[in-house]
Amino acid sequence: MHWEKPINPAQLATTATAAQLLRAAPITAMEARILLAHVLGWQRTELITRADEILPASQIAAFQALEKRRLAGEPMAQIIEQREFFGLTFRITPAVLIPRPETELLVELALASIASIEAPQVLDLGTGSGAIAIAIAHQRPDAQITATDQAHAALALAKWNAHHLLPADRPGGPLNFAAGDWYHALATPKRFNLIVSNPPYIAAHDPHLTQGDLRFEPRHALTDQADGLSALHTIIAQASAWLLDSGALWLEHGYNQAAATRAQLIAHGFSKVRSERDLAHIERVSGGLKS
């Protein structure tokens, strides 16, 4: 049996290899590999091919600082300042929600609704990091997209992501970013083929707000400070005024809000109203067409 000398944690503060740091890491092996590759600027494969290289003390200290942040519960996406969404790598800061896999369903439904429309006009309300708007823009270069947010820090980040992830010469032109609360961000009357939004839909009393990654994300982007339905209702109630005939509205919502969202859509005259399930078989996105 191969015997390996135990690692002295104190020694790792001044001298260590990548392999030693990974073996001693108090976080999951996958998270340790992600953080160490991030600090070193290495590809993941280099953690294997260069495993026995002695690392500079400065890089060891930087890695251990990130370990402590993760042990304190800080989300990985905020620590390494990036998250993959719909095949694109977005820059992430504490100013925005971390894009999640279930939101890709919203993008898929949005793209399907404009599949037969040439140069569609698209509105993304509450864009945050820009993930939804930019994913649509990337898949549909001809789409003309407006993205809004009331938080100026979020808009600045969304603009940065758009600049770095989309070609400057895309046929639909650059994304139009506007600051303001939902439709109030739109300075001039305009109609859209599609409106999408992932608004704050967690109820103010929901215990999840004090758990996991949500503790570190902007509260205003998570909850409406009420029952979780007010933002959804506001967007639905005013959508028809901003949609072209037969235009589509798609909204992400909570696991138990599909029926209430469908009822609001029907009450405000939308047709072909339905909800779609995410990979966890939860009704996650609801929408319909302007009649």
Protein topology:
Layout: H1 18-24, H2 29-40, H3 46-49, H4 57-71, H5 76-80, E1 82-85, E2 88-91, H6 104-113, E3 121-125, H7 131-139, E4 144-149, H8 152-165, E5 176-179, E6 192-197, H9 230-239, E7 243-252, H10 258-267, E8 270-277, E9 283-290
Parallel strand pairs: 3-4, 3-6, 4-5, 6-7
Antiparallel strand pairs: 1-2, 7-9, 8-9
Please characterize this protein's 3D structure.
The N terminus is likely disordered. This protein has a 7-stranded mixed beta sheet with strand order 5-4-3-6-7-9-8, with helices on both faces. The protein has a two-stranded antiparallel ribbon with strand order 1-2. Strand 8 and strand 9 form a beta hairpin. It has 291 residues and is of the alpha/beta class. 33% of the residues lie in helices and 19% in strands. Helix 1 packs antiparallel against helix 2. The chain is built from 10 helices and 9 strands.
Give the count of helical stretches. 10
Write down the overall mean pLDDT: 94
For the terminal residues, how far apart are their CA atoms?
73 Å
**What is the CA-atom radius of gyration, in angstroms?**
22 Å
What's the helix-strand series? HHHHHEEHEHEHEEHEHEE
Write down how many β-strands occur, each being a DSSP E stretch of 2 or more residues.
9
Range of helix content: 25-40%
Q: Report the β-strand fraction as a percent range.
A: 15-25%
Structural class: alpha/beta
Most strands sheet: 7 strands, mixed
